[in-house]
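User: Can you predict the 3D structure of Branched-chain amino acid ABC transporter permease? Sequence below.
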Amino acid sequence: MSELNIAASTPTSVVPQAKTITDRLSAVRWPLVATTVVLVAACLAPFQLVPFHTFQLAMAMIYAVTLLGLNLLVGHTGQISLGHGAFFAVGAYTSAIAISDWNLPYFATVPLAALVTFALGYALGVPALRLRGLYLALVTLSIAIFLVPVLKRFDGLTGGSMGLTVAKPQPPAWTGLAEDQWLYFLALLTAVLSFALVAGILRSRVGRALHAVRDNETAAEVLGVNLAHYKTLVFAWSALLAGVGGCVYTWVIAYVSPDSFAVTLSITLLAALVVGGLGTAWGPVLGGLFVVFVPSFAQDVNKAAPGVIFGLLIIAVMYLAPKGLAGLAAQWSQWLGQRVRKGKTHAH
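Assistant: Sure. Here are the predicted C-alpha cells for Branched-chain amino acid ABC transporter permease:
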C-alpha cells in the first residue's frame, strides 16, 4: 500500500521539480546565448564595416562603459547624477596630459585615469551623503557646469580653449589590423572587462547592499547596511568607469577640448541610460548605441534641426517602452517564450 502511495505521489512531486530545473536552466541559458552571439558579432563587425561605422561602434562601446558606471549609481542604487560628463572629461584629460606631457604608454593611462576619477568621485560622494533626489541632481549638475570654465582657465595644463591633441595608438604589426580596427578592439576589450567587473560587483554582497539602499534606505540601515560607506563607494566606482570611458575616448578621438564636455553631455548620458533601460544588464549597451547612432540618423533626416528629432525620438521611446529598450526586449522575449511553451504543450 505504501508503494502505491509513493507511486501516486511521484508525478506531483517530481514534475514541478523538473519544471523548476528547466526554468532555471532556461534563465541561465538564454542570457548566456545572447551574450555569446553579441560578442561574436562584435568581434566580426570591424571586418565587415567601413572605417567610419567601425569608429561609430567604438564610440558606442566607450559610452556604454560610461553608462555602465552611471547605471551602477542610478539604476542599482537609486542615486541621481547629472554630472557624469565631468568624470568622463576628467578621465579624458588625464589620459591626454599623461600621453602628451609625461610620455606615458597608452595602457598606463587607464589605471591613472581610473585612480584620479575614483578619488574625485569618492571626495564628491562624501558631501552628497546628506542629499537626495533633486538636491543631489542639482549638486552633480553644478559639477558639470563649472568644469568647462576650469578647463579653459588652466591653459598651461589643459591647453585652454584649444584643447590637447595626441597621437592615436598604432596597431602592432603582428595583428595585421588597420588603425580603426585596432582602436575598435581596444574599446571592445575595455567594455568587456568593465561589464565583467560590474557583474561581479552586483553578484557580491556589495551588490545586494546597493539594491537594498535603492529599494528602501531605512530598511537597509535597519538590516545593518552602512549607508555612508556604500553610497560613497558606489559614487566612486561610478566615476571610475566614466573616467575609464573618457580615457579610451582620448585614444579614439585623439583630441580633447572643453567644448566637447559641455553640460549637455551629462544630460544626454542620463537620457540615454533611461532610454536603454535603468537597472538592466543591456541598458548601457543600448544607451551607448542610442547616443552615437540616433543623432547621426537625426542629422541625415533633417540637418537643420537634429536636436528636435533626437528629442522626439526620446519621447517616442519613453512612451512606447517606459522601462527602456532593454525592458521592451525582455517583454518580447518573455512573450516569445510563452508562445513556444504553449506550442510544446499543445503538441504533447
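The first strand starts at residue 164 and ends at 165. The chain has one domain: 23-347.
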